[in-house]
Amino acid sequence: MSQTPEVLFVCVHNAGRSQMAAALLDHHAAGRVRVRSAGSAPADAITPAVAEVMAELGLDLAGQVPKPLTGEAVQAADVVITMGCGDACPVFPGKRYLDWQLPDPAGRPAEQIRPIRDEIDVRVRALLAELLPGGA
User: Fold this and answer.
1) In 10 A of CB 42, how many CB atoms?
2) 8-36: pLDDT as tens digits
3) Longest CA pairwise span in the chain (Å)
């Protein structure tokens, strides 16, 4: 792993789960981890209710746009975390892959997205403790 670990979060549309995870890890890591997110079939925009529940934590997703998944992004990452991207995520030897089974927030109201956000936050904090032992 490089001196600054790099994590890539991937979901289908890059409009919900992967955006929440990237924002939460970036926030908690405070520059100690490179964070990216992408989608196997990116949407046109972040899901509005996802942006709403992240704003409740003081995390602004307004400047984020869904990005397409590329082989280069996967190759650059030390850890690739998929969240329902199926078989669309390329697999490269030597990478650590995790699959987080989480409900898709698309089409759900904010009150149903908050528990998804909170579960992602728990997982992100645990990942950060693994990536930066003693420094998280």
Assistant:
1) 19
2) 999 989 999 999 999 999 999 999 999 99
3) 40
Long-range contacts of 84-91 (CB under 8 A, 24+ apart): 84/11, 84/12, 84/17, 85/10, 85/11, 85/12, 85/39, 85/40, 86/12, 86/40, 88/12, 88/40, 88/41, 89/10, 89/40
Kindly report, residue by residue over 39-93, the tens digit of the pLDDT: 989 999 999 999 999 999 999 998 999 999 998 999 999 999 999 766 566 677 8
Query: In this structure, what token pair is assigned to residue 38?
Result: 């992408």
Task: Count, in order, helices (H) and strands (E) of the chain.
Answer: 4, 4
> Which single residue is written with the structure tokens 């082989």?
71
Measure the CA dihedral 73/51/42/93, to 10°.
30
Residue 82 near residue 104 (C-beta atoms within 8 A): no
Q: Are 9 and 124 in contact (CB under 8 A)?
A: no
* Contacts of 52 by beta carbon, 8 Å cutoff, 6+ apart: 110
